[in-house]
């Protein structure tokens, strides 16, 4: 069990953490960083109890596979202590900010993984928390470790990414700076040198970056990738990557039942509506994990969750019970594909009530029989989606949005299509677009 570190050890930041409650319109926000997105059923019940007892009951799955409790009142210390007692905290107070390591939700169980990333991830997380120098990293500085799984979010940009591949019969880790595994890799290292590479990159970043250069992209505006690679090669043996490109897997593998590497078992994926759970829902999922799985849950970058190691014969019953709890388990349902930020009900920067508008849009799309992937953002910060969605609605006023379509040639949300649409107008336009032969 962790003892609660002194709050004086926390540095100022606008990012919530487990030990740093950040105020919002709907109360305080506590962010619980999960190792590899994984949480035990007992820990899930502790989160449900804390949200129910000390907050509004709103629990959010984030796009970095973490959890947030919203609406926290005056009993912040009691809430933090209850979560620390469930072993959900960092080793040290300063170590909480830097636990930004994302894995595939299918780590260790995905049928197409090249290696099980969990042991290396544990080594990296321990180093991030125990090496004091790394506590100077920004709370947004993030690392991705990709084991080659089919179930992988490859569109989120990271300050450093590592991706498994095979070259001449040897497993290696391709890596890149300030981007995604689908980019051209900067180089590669042997699998056994993965931890050393992460340490070398982070140490070099901290040596070169000025205080205002908090992200790798800021440093690359001043130093070329080639210049950084020359310095890294002095610390870790590396090679060029020839004729390899990371290919994305199927887009719906986080929803429904899918076979694991071990025969006879599946994982079952479910989407809480708009990424939000209540305590009863989270307790119900924890119960299912105990009864049918291995007593663990995995949260995903799609703001959804998985129950791993479910007997294939029990998959249909687990799905039925998840749906009874209010979760979506079918990819062809609009609420399985809609993402929305907190909106004006909880955020001072939100220009529209995005959650309510998203529910209205889902209802309209359901009637039309369409299931596009849509992101509703209350402001330009795009807190709910780290990647560019196929369709983005950017709020401009209550109930009104600018409509963007993803375009590889356009930065940000993509190509602006129409300004100042109501939700009804958005649904009608998407309906017309879905019927157009140009989009078939």
From TrEMBL:
It comes from the Bacteria. The keyword Methyltransferase does not apply. Keywords: 4Fe-4S, Heme, Iron, Iron-sulfur, Metal-binding, Oxidoreductase. GO terms for molecular function: 4 iron, 4 sulfur cluster binding; heme binding; metal ion binding; precorrin-3B synthase activity. Residues 29-85, 258-323 form the Nitrite/Sulfite reductase ferredoxin-like domain. Residues 95-235 form the Nitrite/sulphite reductase 4Fe-4S domain. Its EC number is 1.14.13.83. Transmembrane segments: none annotated. The keyword Oxidoreductase applies. It is an enzyme of class 1 (oxidoreductase). InterPro entries: Cbl_synth_CobG-like (IPR012798), NIR_SIR_4Fe-4S (IPR051329), NiRdtase/SiRdtase_haem-b_fer (IPR005117), Nit/Sulf_reduc_fer-like_dom_sf (IPR036136), NO2/SO3_Rdtase_4Fe4S_dom (IPR006067), NO2/SO3_Rdtase_4Fe4S_sf (IPR045854). Pfam families: NIR_SIR (PF01077), NIR_SIR_ferr (PF03460). PANTHER family: BLR3264 PROTEIN, FERREDOXIN--NITRITE REDUCTASE, CHLOROPLASTIC. This is Precorrin-3B synthase. It comes from Pseudomonas fluorescens. The lineage of its organism: Bacteria, Pseudomonadati, Pseudomonadota, Gammaproteobacteria, Pseudomonadales. The gene is cobG.
């Amino acid at each position: 069990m962790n003892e609660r570190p002194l709050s004086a050890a926390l540095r100022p930041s606008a990012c919530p953490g487990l030990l740093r409650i950040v105020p919002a319109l709907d109360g305080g926000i506590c962010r619980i960083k999960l190792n590899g997105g994984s949480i035990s059923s007992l820990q899930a019940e502790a989160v449900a109890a804390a949200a129910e007892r000390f907050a509004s009951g709103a629990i959010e799955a984030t796009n970095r596979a973490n959890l947030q409790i919203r609406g926290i009142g005056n009993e912040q210390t009691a809430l933090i202590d209850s979560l620390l007692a469930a072993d959900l905290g960092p080793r040290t107070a300063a170590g909480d900010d830097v636990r930004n390591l994302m894995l595939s939700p299918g780590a260790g169980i995905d049928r197409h993984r090249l290696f099980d990333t969990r042991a290396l991830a544990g080594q990296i997380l321990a180093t991030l928390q125990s090496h004091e120098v790394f506590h100077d990293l920004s709370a947004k500085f993030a690392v991705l470790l990709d084991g080659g799984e089919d179930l992988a979010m490859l569109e989120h940009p990271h300050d450093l990414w590592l991706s498994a591949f095979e070259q001449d019969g040897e497993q290696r880790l391709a890596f890149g700076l300030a981007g995604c595994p689908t980019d051209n890799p900067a180089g590669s290292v042997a699998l056994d040198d993965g931890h050393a590479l992460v340490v070398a990159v982070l140490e070099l970043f901290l040596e070169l970056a000025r205080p205002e250069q908090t992200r790798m992209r800021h440093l690359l505006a001043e130093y070329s990738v080639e210049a950084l690679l020359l310095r890294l090669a002095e610390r870790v043996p590396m090679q060029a990557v020839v004729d390899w490109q990371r290919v994305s897997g199927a887009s719906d593998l986080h929803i429904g039942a899918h076979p694991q590497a071990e025969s006879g078992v599946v994982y079952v994926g479910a989407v809480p509506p708009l990424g939000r759970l209540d305590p009863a829902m989270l307790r119900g999922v924890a119960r299912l994990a105990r009864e049918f799985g291995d007593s663990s849950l995995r949260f995903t970058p799609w703001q959804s969750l998985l129950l791993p190691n479910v007997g294939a014969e029990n998959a249909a019953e687990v799905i039925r019970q998840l749906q009874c709890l209010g979760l979506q388990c079918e990819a062809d349902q609009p609420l399985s594909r809609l993402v929305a930020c907190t909106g004006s009900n909880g955020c001072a920067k939100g220009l529209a009530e995005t959650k309510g508008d998203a529910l209205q849009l889902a209802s309209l799309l359901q009637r039309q029989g369409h299931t596009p992937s849509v992101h509703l953002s209350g402001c330009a910060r795009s807190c709910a989606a780290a990647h560019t969605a196929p369709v983005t609605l950017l709020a401009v006023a209550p109930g009104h949005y600018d409509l963007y379509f993803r375009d590889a040639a356009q930065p940000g949300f993509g190509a602006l299509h129409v300004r100042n649409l109501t939700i009804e107008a958005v649904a009608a336009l998407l309906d017309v677009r879905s019927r157009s032969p140009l989009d078939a």
